[in-house]
């Protein structure tokens, strides 16, 4: 039961004791995630596209999908997918040129809605953010009421729908926002968290990637309940520094505060392979795919960076990075791919094989009001 409104709670359910950080204030966290943001903006601004499968970015021959409408997702089309594959999966897919300045404009309108309720806003990208509404400007006691009001105001002012997740920590709020998309709202109360996490499939845990989830399944870990059975020492041995994170989130423990206006220093993506890569051709092909994911994330953040880095982790867990700083900011995927290829050669191959590759963009340039905005573009 609740000790009082100023402390976290101890719940005892079955074999597990969920101790959610006693002696810390109970937070009310909302995670807002816009629904198919880029694609929804295009459908809103161009009514003839409503109800049709569209992909923002690329074309039938080349490029990469930056975002897909829900109509396109029914055919398996998704962001960071090569456009040629997307076109094969959905022959009547409509490709639309991205307009990042427009997406940034609407993102600012959404941010203004958030600020009517709290200044504790942590943007994750143009289309999602955490809000701490424990203490809020209207003085409302219910985070669920606030989330409903925010969703309604976003719809009224932009014509777009958002999904909201509400809980006592960031991890669970983000988990909740994905439950009833699109236009969803889901709450995970503290007293419900234990049972919810125990039953949740391991691949749905934010921070556990596809490759890690598959490895966990081979170790008999299919749900949060299975994960809890592993000791902290065991998880740390198997997964290194991430082991403590897995241990905590399976128990609903997440102490991270909402950090307003955090300064992002880099955007990256990486992938761990089931089998170590031994040939440079494989490495180049995988880096192309990872670069596409990186650029998709980069474009959502509305940032402007000029340093490109590749990360290589070998079978013996030794790791290297290579970087190149461009004369101009990265503005399209082809430019990013060229930089990645410059950093990739036969000398990367070692007898241990490569178990992980990553691509990152950093050295972000601060934009002033006097600067003319840069139009990010994808391949067409």
What's the SSE blueprint?
Elements lengths: L9 E4 L2 E4 L9 E6 L2 H9 L8 E3 L10 E2 L1 H4 L9 H7 L4 E3 L3 H16 L5 E5 L2 E5 L10 H16 L3 E6 L2 H8 L7 E3 L2 H10 L10 H9 L5 H5 L3 H8 L2 H8 L16 E12 L2 H22 L3 E10 L4 E7 L7 H10 L11 E11 L16
Parallel strand pairs: 4-6, 9-10
Antiparallel strand pairs: 1-2, 3-8, 3-9, 4-5, 7-8, 11-14, 12-13, 12-14
Helix pairs in contact: 4-5, 10-11, 12-13
Protein model, in words:
This protein is an alpha+beta fold. The protein has 3 domains: 26-45 and 98-261, Alpha-Beta Plaits (2-Layer Sandwich), CATH 3.30.70.270; 46-97, MutS, DNA mismatch repair protein, domain I, CATH 3.40.1170; 266-364, 2-Layer Sandwich (Dna Ligase, domain 1). The protein is 35% helix and 21% strand. It contains 13 helices and 14 strands. The protein has a 5-stranded mixed sheet. Strands 11-14-12-13 form a 4-stranded antiparallel sheet. It has a 3-stranded mixed sheet with strand order 5-4-6. Strand 9 (162-167), helix 6 and strand 10 form a beta-alpha-beta unit. Helix 10 packs across helix 11 (242-249). The protein is globular, with a radius of gyration of 22 Å. Residues 1-21 and 367-380 have low confidence and may be disordered. Keywords: Cytoplasm, DNA damage, DNA repair, DNA replication, DNA-binding, DNA-directed DNA polymerase, Magnesium, Metal-binding, Mutator protein, Nucleotidyltransferase, Transferase. Residues 29-209 form the UmuC domain. Its EC number is 2.7.7.7. The record marks 38 as: Substrate discrimination. GO terms for molecular function: DNA-directed DNA polymerase activity.
């Amino acid at each position: 039961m609740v000790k009082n409104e100023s402390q976290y709670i101890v719940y005892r359910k079955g074999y597990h004791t969920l101790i959610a950080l006693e002696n810390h204030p109970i937070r009310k966290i909302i995670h807002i995630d816009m629904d198919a943001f880029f694609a929804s903006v295009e459908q809103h601004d161009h009514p003839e596209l409503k109800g049709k499968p569209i992909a923002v970015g690329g074309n039938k021959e080349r490029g990469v999908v930056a975002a897909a409408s829900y109509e396109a997702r029914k055919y398996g089309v998704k962001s960071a997918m090569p456009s040629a594959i997307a076109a094969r999966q959905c022959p009547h897919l409509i490709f639309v040129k991205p307009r990042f300045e427009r997406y940034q404009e609407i993102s600012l309108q959404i941010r203004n809605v958030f600020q009517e309720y709290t200044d504790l806003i942590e943007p994750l990208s143009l289309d999602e953010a955490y809000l701490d509404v424990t203490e809020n400007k209207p003085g409302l006691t219910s985070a669920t009421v606030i989330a409903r009001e925010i969703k309604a105001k976003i719809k009224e002012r932009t014509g777009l729908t958002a999904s909201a997740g509400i809980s006592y920590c960031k991890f669970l709020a983000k988990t909740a926002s994905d439950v009833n998309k699109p236009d969803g709202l889901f709450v995970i109360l503290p007293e419900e968290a234990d049972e919810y996490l125990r039953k949740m499939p391991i691949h749905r845990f934010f921070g556990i990637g596809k490759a890690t989830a598959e490895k966990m399944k081979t170790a008999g870990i299919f749900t949060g309940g299975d994960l809890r059975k592993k000791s902290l020492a065991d998880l740390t041995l198997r997964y290194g520094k991430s082991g403590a994170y897995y241990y905590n989130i399976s128990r609903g423990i997440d102490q991270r505060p909402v950090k307003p206006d955090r300064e992002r220093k880099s955007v990256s993506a990486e992938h761990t392979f089931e089998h170590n890569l031994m040939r440079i051709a494989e490495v180049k092909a995988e880096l192309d795919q990872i670069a596409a994911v990186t650029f998709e994330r980069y474009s959502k953040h509305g940032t402007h960076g000029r340093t490109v880095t590749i990360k290589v982790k070998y079978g013996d867990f030794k790791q290297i990075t290579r970087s190149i700083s461009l004369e101009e900011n990265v503005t399209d995927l082809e430019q990013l791919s060229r930089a990645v290829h410059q950093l990739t050669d036969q000398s990367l191959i070692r007898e241990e094989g490569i178990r992980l590759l990553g691509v990152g963009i950093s050295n972000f340039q601060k934009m002033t009001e006097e600067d003319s905005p840069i139009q990010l573009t994808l391949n067409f």
